[in-house]
Task: structure prediction
Amino acid sequence: MRISVIGCGYLGAVHASAMAVLGHDVVGIDVDERKIAQLRAAQPPFFEPGLAEILANATSSGRLAFSTDIEDAATADVHFIAVGTPQSPGSNFADLTYVDAAFASLVPHLREGALVVGKSTVPVGTAQRLAALLAARAPHASLAWNPEFLREGYAVKDTLEPDRLVYGVGDDHAASVLDDVYRTAIDAGTPRIVTDYATAELVKVAANAFLATKISFINAMSEIADATGADVTALADAIGHDARIGRRFLNAGVGFGGGCLPKDIRGFTARADELGLGESLAFLKEVDAINLRQRQRVVDLAVGLLDGAPNGKRVVVLGVTFKPESDDVRDSPALDVAVQLRGLGADVVATDPEGIENARGRHPQLAYVESTDEALRGAELVLLVTEWREYRDLDPQRVASLVATPRIIDGRNVLDPDAWRAAGWVYKGMGRP
Ligand code: UGA
Result:
């Protein structure tokens, strides 16, 4: 099929490459000339495991092109809108500027029978509004909403082998076109849910709200565990054995961040308020508050371990990205903690395998060091806040010989407290005795 993907960020660049690998003819469109130049040269503009390989494969097959000119999308039959919907400045609402702009620029180029497919995460009601616009301006085209569930770090696998497909459609034809797009996954038995626009839009935000709630639930338990001497990791293991609960997304720590979970729960509550249903989602405000409190807990723990006097102390922050296997620092709890400690006067040195460039762009006031060993040298306190494999595998004996004072906060509960204490460290986890 001939496909265009509008917006080549974390979602669109992967989607465009994956669709070409699946055999479709794809053009990726973005207004960012630098990004398009990189993609044309088969260079991923961000770190995502496996993207370089599928990008190279798709580009060399001749089935993947990139452009900054929306006119180059005109020959496509299916157009995916994959632009960002960040939190609006100064409010909790999702900012639809980019979706509306992409849509407006595309409409004049739609061929007879074209299908516009929204992938961006939007407030419920958006697809209905855009479908009405389409009916007025391009009645020969139709609209579907097909939310995306990929996780950064696993984006390639999640796109090629999704765990479910959700189509919000206005008619059966749209569903059969999407079936042709996703033929490989459908033939492999991927569950597919065909529904209306509103349900499809809600599925996406409901999924992220549920995941965020699960994380904040276990973080609330970690607060109780801290106060009572209980161990939240054993608690999570125990309740996780109940298949109705499940162990995944029950890791307590510095909390969730990234470009999705935080802004999606805020956008969802803002939309519910707008619908006069604020009470229904009031609990998500608490989920957000618990999450932000985790960052404060790590900062407070750090100040406590520095005897209340962080000023001038060398604090080493391991990890700045919002999670491992990503270079994304959007709403990163790790970076937030580093910035707060710097604000309290600590001599903060941050390191990360992939995220330094993005972190420096946002917070140039922090000192960044590439090498983990170099960062650790002379540390008076170490904070592990993004659980990259490299940090999980650190040898406490060896690291003790690098630092000035062996004190560590395990902000992701991924280290073995006994091993670190046996090597002479003061170890503090989150909700672990
Ligand atoms: C999330 C969803 O998992 C995807 O399904 C969704 O498609 C995506 O948002 C999106 O809306 O685009 P992502 O933001 O890549 O994906 O990251 P997650 O793997 O969900 O992790 C989010 C945050 O939760 C990270 O900061 C992570 O460290 C934290 N987390 C995760 C915990 O603190 N504890 C856990 O047990 C799990």
User: Anything to note?
Assistant: The mean pLDDT is 98. The chain is about 45% helix and 15% strand. The longest helix spans residues 197-228.
